[in-house]
Amino acid sequence: MNKTLGLYLHIPFCRSKCAYCDFYSVTDHGFTARYTDALILHMEDYAPGVKNYYIDTVYMGGGTPTVLPKKSLLDVIDGIYGNFNVLETAEFTVECNPATADRSTFTALRRAGVNRLSIGFQSACDNELVNLTRVHNFDGAVATFEAARKSKFDNINIDLMYGIPEQTERSLALTLDRVTALEPEHISLYGLKIEPGTPFAQKADRLALPDEDTEYNMYASAVRYLEEKGYRHYEISNFAKPGYECAHNLRYWNCEEYLGLGAGAHSYYGGRRFSFKRDIGAYIDALENVDAGVGIIDEDYEIAPMERIGEYVMLRLRLTDGIDAAEFEQRFGLPLERLYGKYLNVYTENGFMQKRGNAYSFTLKGMYVSNYILSTMLDFDESVYSTLSSGLDK
Ligand code: SF4
Question: Is the bond into 322 cis (omega within 30 degrees of 0)?
């Protein structure tokens, strides 16, 4: 047994719904006990299939896992240890939000084996938190962080956002100043996106959003500032003190296997990508009634060799180390520059990408528009692929 696997568990409950969020979560907590029981049954179902794997990362995300009653949270963690071969050295993260966890919750989590927390601060400016419809203020977030520290958590991520309504370059600088003063080991900084179907999308034209240039300046100056403070910029939106990169998320970006359980969870496992429906009721029904025949699989497909290459490029380019051409060829038996040459050359000539040694990666300017660039690169030259791959085993 030497294969490793990441495990993700989705906890789709929040105290209230933030106006910008399109993650799957509900605010009706009437189902929490049945949901966590179903999740444990789901783990039992999958356990025999992954008995030859060591779990080296566990991530409980959501939603807000810490809105679960403490007992349910601990039952789920027991379920994880009871069903899977979790390595003693595994990184075990639980997401939480200020105002949903206190020192006793953190102490219980630490004792149960959780060793990393991800706390959603989003901003250190209370007017911006109000605009985001967050349920906490900055002081509350700091109190949560300090409670976690007192409970001996020595690996904590703080989530932040830029591009918030009414945010300015100055207010983001203030947020970064206040947050780095807390010395978290890891910081994530995501640009606000207006997601279809959210309350923000309905009133997008009335939101006081920073303009594009301001947003780019925010991103670029945040990257510089965090690097000066000793955080390595290792992924478009992620920064870590040396040795504190998120091992679980690195699995995603390195195209390594993970199993995701829970309503709305996604998996990349056994050569397939699959996900479960974003429907708590259907999820519970299916797990409670084995014979009910309620389908909870949403998507399920085998990844064709060509798609595998596309996914690898899309995900690996998110990392600041980028893609090493020799490693790519060793992995796929195909030369990166023949397949993607037309993009790599144009984007490198125009300052969106760079070549360092054998590796292609985004420049800062390229990272800022990476979603657009990556969507263009999905469309690599299939005729080159067909010629080059004709001798490969499909
Ligand atoms: S707390 Fe997080 S998951 Fe819940 S609604 Fe807000 S942003 Fe979304």
Answer: no
Name which of 101, 240, 126 is nearest 184 in CA terms: 240
Residue 26 is classified by DSSP as B
Residue from 29, 27, 2, 30 nearest 14 by CA: 27
For the chain, how many structural domains are there in total?
A: 2
Q: Does ligand 1 have an atom closer than 6 angstroms to the CB of 132?
A: no
**How far, in Å, from the CA of 110 to the mean position of ligand 1?**
23
Domain boundary among 252, 287, 320: 252
Residue carrying structure tokens 């959501």: 62
Q: What is the pLDDT along the chain (394 residues), one digit of tens a residue?
A: 679 999 999 999 999 999 999 999 999 999 999 999 999 999 999 999 999 999 999 999 999 999 999 999 999 999 999 999 999 999 999 999 998 999 999 999 999 999 999 999 999 999 999 999 999 999 999 999 999 999 999 999 999 999 999 999 999 999 999 999 999 999 999 999 999 999 999 999 999 999 999 999 999 999 999 999 999 999 999 999 999 999 999 999 999 999 999 999 999 999 999 999 999 999 999 999 875 545 889 999 999 988 899 999 999 999 999 999 999 999 999 999 999 998 999 999 999 999 999 999 999 999 999 999 998 887 666 666 666 666 554 3
298 inside domain: no
- The helix (H) or strand (E) run that includes residue 150 is helix 138-150
For residue 11, what are the domain limits?
A: 3-252
d(CA 324, CA 338): 14
Answer whether 180 contacts ligand 1 (Cβ < 6 A). no
- Shared-domain flag, residues 48 and 140: yes
Ligand 1 closest atom vs CA 20: 7
Q: Is the CB of 62 under 6 A from ligand 1?
A: yes
Q: Which ligand 1 atom lies nearest to the CA of residue 97?
A: 1
In this prediction the pTM is 0.95
Q: Cβ(25) to ligand 1 under 6 A?
A: yes
Whether 66 lines ligand 1, by a CB cut-off of 6 Å, is no
190 lines ligand 1 (CB under 6 A): no
Question: Can you name the residues that pair with 267 across neighbouring β-strands?
Answer: 274
Q: Which ligand 1 atom sits closest to the C-alpha of 16?
A: 5
Residue 17 alpha carbon to ligand 1 centre in Å: 6
Q: Which atom of ligand 1 is nearest to the CA of 63?
A: 3
Return the residue matching tokens 């657009």: 372
